[in-house]
Amino acid sequence: MAKTLRTWTTALCLMAPLPAVAQSAPNLTALGGLAPVSILRGSEAGRAALDANLAVTGAIQSGTTKTPLLLPLAEQRQLALRDAFITDGNATELADGLGSRLGGVYQAKVRYAVDETFTNVAQSVADLLGYTNNVAKSDSNAGKYFFANATTNGKAPVSETAANILTERGGTVDVFGKAYDRPAGTPGGDLFGNARPFQTLPSLFAYRGTDYFGRPSHSLDWLRGPRQNLTDSPSYPSGHTTYGYTESVVLAILVPERYQQMIARAAEYGTNRIILGAHYAMDVLGGRAVALHAVAHLLANDPAYVGQIRRNPAVVNEMSRSTNTAVAVTDYRAALEAARTDLTTFLKAECGDTVAACAGADTGRFRDAAANAALYDATQTYGLPVVHPERVGTVEDVGRVAPEAGHLLTAAFPALSLAEANAILTETQGPGGGFLDDGSAFGIYARLNLYAAAGKAAALSATKPAPSPTAR
Prior knowledge:
Helices cover 49% and strands 6% of the residues. It is mainly alpha-helical.
């Protein structure tokens, strides 16, 4: 059983102002990993990458590029509109990556009724998703104002330790705002810095459709309000992408038969943020790295990442309603196994066969492996130019630099050793030299190709004795 602690926050406590919180150790690690963006304006290669970032973002947003998608562009735009609502409590918007059979039964049970009222398969799954997402989200959110104006919330200065992350590199804030002629506080820009694409692109494709709840909506509703007002919300990194990768990876690990498809769903989710006009390609790449880094450290039961008190949104299940719960996961792998047991039981009962058999019954958009691979490959770098030429052609030994990364595979394919998993991640890693690939351990996560790695991991795992006789 997962070693979890649930506490109930009273209404009186909710009314009290929250004290300022310094950046945590994981936050500082993520900020350091994301910091190469802060020096881009200081080099010719960096400035070229910034120019390409805006151009690539604009081409994807307008639909003038041939970026691989899994749906016709008009349908992809509609999905991007639905994806704007984050289903962080149960990952249901992402769960179509489980396939038409498994995804169908999951989404029939696991739904949102209104913004903060949702169902889940089991409390163990809700707790796992909630805790994981909140840990990763904390790292992502720490970067928003930090890279915009070196504050924690737009006004309060960051700690001296955090500030040194910029000063030691000679980095600057508001890189996107300055590069794209919308510096902080100027007309049309973000009040705090790092204005978003819908504020900086010379033109924006806006469109109507329906949102996650099936209500009439418009893309601008999720950019300028009323559904979500991002006009004074700094762009880098993408919090939506952090969520998309975080919870897609969790579902991939819980249902390894659909690992590659869930990774493709994560890549699609990040691209949808560009299609909507909410984020640049660099934002998405930063959000992905944050997610993979945080999940890997959780899977390794890194003491800096487990044992924290993390608030979940309201949870509604068939038995009870729990509001403002706080969960502390002290053994992440145990919590993962508890959630896997409960989710597997549910999926087998609902689909009427083994999970493996139901996973293969897919008539949805993820049925074409070649299309999935093309989508993921396109999102590996979004075609952005090299910033660190000394890194081009290098092959990083993942087991040496970021050994915990292998848990992203071993948690799903337990027949593999950590050394074997890291060897696969080393073999399949993406191209070097991108704006985050500065030689740091965090930079490894910007190069991971989990889609290709999962394919090799599944193939190698199939040659080994099954660790458990239980049919899935």
